[in-house]
Input
Amino acid sequence: MSVTNEIRARLQAAFSPTALDIVDDSERHRGHAGYQEGGESHFNVRIRSDAFRDQSRIARHRAVHSALGADLVGRIHALSLDIGV
Output
């Protein structure tokens, strides 16, 4: 399974999002630290879910990282998160 699909599956399972956009932005980082041939090293994730209601920005980020798991986060060089309700 691709990293993109793993991200999608784990976030859908954890948060039942109303919106979820995952962009593999790796190609824009060619030649920079962490770039991997074939991509799947740099991601932009936009997620909306009622599960984030009344949570601080830090709590939301922690929840997403927890849902993704250390194994998956460890394979990603850069993860930009846009989290909301």
Summary: The chain has one domain: 3-84.
